[in-house]
Design brief:
3% strand, 3-stranded antiparallel sheet, 268 residues
């Protein structure tokens, strides 16, 4: 599933003009053939400005990486280059520099939503699978199931958020066609809202556990192979016990079938 999604993203971005495709200039000058004034009341012009602003920011980061390396003055040189590019971009399209700076920080909402939805679907499937595995190890009414479910929900949710963060960084790199994400990684939803996403993962896991819990409660008694003697209920129904140890399983059967239903139970 992950490989399929990755191939979809690669195919989608391969034919698009991306910020990393634009070469940097030694003097941080903004060069563009389109010199028209943008009307920000128009959605197409807003998209154009957002793309140019993100491109200018990317060019400044790549310029600083090339000419300042990892020296202490990197931040200052990057900001100076970025400001020069923003001024040139603002003059080119007849907008304010502050507007350009604002648009450079805007995210692609559609792409971010697609990444989160894909992750949510995959995580929900994993959570449902693990919750089902946990449920199989506990008989109905056993409180240990919830202790185990809550414990695993924390660990699996943490792993899920880290995987989602790594995947979203890969998608961001493909979208930008740049390995110079730098401080922009902090704007990725999986990093900017990691606590909220972690809480959502825990809730999803517990909902999956709740679903399995009631599904198990309503299901007919399913007995697991644990080396127990065969059990006959009302002289006809034979099954294998799903609860260890045998004493607890026997008590469960006697309570639910003898006390409440008045059925006769024989062990052979």
């Amino acid at each position: 599933m992950t490989r399929v999604l990755l191939m979809v993203f690669i195919t989608t971005f391969a034919g698009c003009d991306r910020p990393g495709d634009h070469p940097i200039s030694p003097n941080c000058q903004w060069n563009e053939t389109d010199h028209r004034t943008l009307n920000l009341a128009n959605a197409t012009d807003r998209r154009h400005l957002r793309f140019d602003a993100v491109t200018a920011e990317d060019m400044a980061i790549r310029w600083a990486d090339q000419y300042a390396g990892h020296r202490p003055e990197w931040d200052e040189r990057c900001q100076e280059c970025m400001e020069t590019l923003f001024i040139g971009l603002a003059k080119n399209h007849g907008v304010d520099v502050a507007t350009v700076r604002h648009y450079s920080r805007e995210r692609d909402v559609v792409l971010d939503a697609a990444v989160i939805v894909c992750f949510a679907l995959m995580y929900a499937g994993v959570a449902y699978l693990f919750a089902g595995r946990i449920r199989q190890r506990f008989p109905p009414g056993e409180p240990g199931f919830w202790v185990m479910a809550l414990t695993l929900s924390v660990g699996i949710s943490l792993i899920g958020v880290l995987v989602g963060m790594f995947g979203s960084i890969i998608v961001e790199g493909l979208r930008m066609n740049s390995g110079h994400l730098s401080f922009r990684m902090n704007r990725i939803p999986f990093r900017a809202h990691s606590v909220v996403l972690f809480a959502g993962c825990v809730i999803t896991f517990m909902l999956a556990s709740l679903l399995h819990y009631y599904k198990k409660q309503d299901a007919p008694l399913d007995l697991l192979e644990c080396g127990f003697p065969s059990i006959t209920i009302d002289g006809g129904v034979r099954n294998r016990l799903r609860a260890c140890p045998y004493v607890r399983a026997k008590s469960h059967l006697e309570t639910n079938y003898s006390t409440h239903r008045g059925d006769s139970i024989s062990y052979s």
